[in-house]
From TrEMBL:
InterPro entries: ClpP/crotonase-like_dom_sf (IPR029045), Enoyl-CoA_hyd/isom_CS (IPR018376), Enoyl-CoA_hydra/iso (IPR001753). GO terms for molecular function: enoyl-CoA hydratase activity. Gene3D superfamilies: 2-enoyl-CoA Hydratase, Chain A, domain 1. It catalyses: a 4-saturated-(3S)-3-hydroxyacyl-CoA = a (3E)-enoyl-CoA + H2O; a (3S)-3-hydroxyacyl-CoA = a (2E)-enoyl-CoA + H2O. Could possibly oxidize fatty acids using specific components. It comes from Mycolicibacterium moriokaense. Keywords: Fatty acid metabolism, Lipid metabolism. Belongs to the enoyl-CoA hydratase/isomerase family. This is Enoyl-CoA hydratase. PANTHER family: ENOYL-COA HYDRATASE, MITOCHONDRIAL, ENOYL-COA HYDRATASE-RELATED. It comes from the Bacteria. The keyword Transit peptide does not apply. The keyword Lipid metabolism applies. One of its GO terms (biological process) is fatty acid beta-oxidation.
Length: 239
């Protein structure tokens, strides 16, 4: 994670080539980074991709123990963004797929310039951890059912029509616009802003906090031989 503070706004850039996929090291770094920041954040990706989601090869090669640690850590990463008391603006500079889409949904405001966005977990053969699904339910509203069950990745204009993103911004204007919004939101009372986020997120947070049994089932499915076979088949089809 690359971090740059300028004029009261911290830009956090996911920098994990080639597609900023999440492995355990990156996720642990993301949690520590976001939790260490005070004030407004702009979250973006390095290169031409915001994030393509979970590094499935790392899951397959790491085994059950790695998968258990990873699922707990990635939920913590989503919640570090979702629970950040100050403004968080996602500057989606390219594809935001699966976990990358969830991370974008965890922000307060989402701007997107190019690429595809969507929740493709069902296509891969894995269910969502509770935190991921509840964050998407909060951000996507009623369209979350279609997003999850169809597992399609859609373009920028379609995402704007569904309300997944707040603005479509030209690539050359994306970062300036995101930083400007984060700075403007940061002018509000920090105490009031944080309190409003807690209230807005209350129902999602209650569902997440009550989801231990569901998450145990999610972990079991991710670790099963059937799921690993599906992951391998999915990766093979990409070649």
């Amino acid at each position: 994670m690359e971090v740059e503070l300028a004029d009261g706004v911290t830009t956090v850039r996911i920098d994990h080539p080639p597609v900023n996929a999440f492995d355990l090291g990156l996720v642990d770094d993301a949690v520590a980074t976001v939790r260490s920041i005070e004030g407004p954040i702009v979250l973006t990706g390095a290169g031409a991709c915001f994030s393509a989601g979970v590094d499935l090869r790392a899951i397959i090669e790491g085994g059950a123990g790695y998968t258990d640690r990873f699922l707990a850590a990635i939920s913590d990463a989503f919640l570090a963004v979702f629970d950040h008391p100050a403004p968080v603006v996602a500057a989606i500079n390219g594809h935001a797929i699966a976990g990358g889409c969830v991370l974008a949904m965890a922000a307060d405001i989402r701007l997107m310039s190019t690429g595809l966005i969507g929740l493709s977990e069902v296509e891969v053969g894995v269910p969502f951890p509770v935190a991921a699904l509840e964050i998407c339910r909060y951000a996507m509203g009623t369209s979350v059912t279609r997003a999850v069950l169809e597992a399609n990745n859609i373009d920028v204009q379609s995402a704007a029509q569904r309300g997944w993103i707040d603005e479509v911004v030209a690539p050359e204007e994306l970062m300036a616009r995101a930083v400007g919004i984060a700075r403007a939101l940061g002018q509000h009372s920090p105490t009031a802003y944080a309190a409003m986020k807690v209230q807005l997120h209350r129902h999602a947070r209650e569902a997440i906090d009550a989801g231990a049994e569901l998450d145990a089932n999610v972990k079991a499915i991710w670790c099963s031989d059937e799921t690993r076979a599906r992951m391998s088949a999915f990766l093979g089809a990409l070649r």
